[in-house]
Amino acid sequence: MAGELIIPSGAIVQGNLTVTGSMLPAIARTKLATDQSASYPIAWEAWRVWDAYGTNLPATGGTDDLGLYGGTFTTNTPSIQTGDVKTTSGTRYARCVVMVPPNFVTGGTFKIRAHAGAKTTAADGSMTIDFQAYRSDKEDSLGSDLVTTAATTINSTSKANKDFTVDSATLIPGDLLDIRMAVTWVDTSAVTAVIGFVGSVEILMDIQG
């Protein structure tokens, strides 16, 4: 028997609807609840040498490249580090490409978050982390940098989350973002090792479904 079933508002809550012998109509993604700032970690293996993208990050940071440090299994987790940069100044980089997932809410929040700091000793001058993110047109060209947050200090042995806002006004699901991470430091002390440390990088975004 066909007909229209009218269910009072609030009568169905999560977990109490069972359908047998028929199919519910497709539900548009835009009708689903929005999860705000859902976390999408970037795998360490995604990070590459910034100006030689076909090359894995070195095991030790050097020249202008950040290093991918595996640590000791059961003792340390993998991380990205500068290597010992005491008595020097400079910048080291790593680069990756991230796809905006299909459940991203167009125009919603999109941030890059790094958990970072100085590994054992802070620089006697400064140490910062910064990100740039460019939207690919998928035809070998890029637009402008979408990151609106300036370089942020990580010159502390107390590691902390550092958030970088990405202008999401033009982002749509399926877009490719070319992202470069930079750690910059100034140090003159020769007493102990000064090492920039990044324990994780993740994307925070609004999603539906």
Question: Could you describe the 3D structure shown?
Answer:
The protein is mainly β and 209 residues long. It has one domain (35-208): Jelly Rolls (Sandwich). Helices cover 0% and strands 41% of the residues. Strands 1, 2, 3, 5, 9 and 11 form a six-stranded antiparallel sheet that branches. Strands 4, 6, 7, 8 and 10 form a five-stranded antiparallel sheet that branches. It is elongated and about 80 Å long.
What is the gist of this entry?
With 209 residues, the protein is mainly β. Helix content is 0%, strand content 41%. The protein is built from no helices and eleven strands.
CATH level 1 class label: Mainly Beta
SSE ordering: EEEEEEEEEEE
Question: What's the total helix number?
Answer: 0
Shape: elongated
- The structural domain count equals 1
Distance from first to last alpha carbon: 32 Å
Mean pLDDT: 89
Helix content: under 10%
Stated plainly, the CATH topology is called: Jelly Rolls
- β-strand percent reads 35-45%
Main beta-sheet annotation: 6 strands, antiparallel
Structural class: mainly beta
**How many β strands by DSSP?**
11
What are the low-pLDDT stretches, counting only 5+ consecutive residues below 50? Answer: none
Highlighted features:
five-stranded antiparallel β-sheet, elongated, mainly beta, six-stranded antiparallel β-sheet, 209 residues, Jelly Rolls
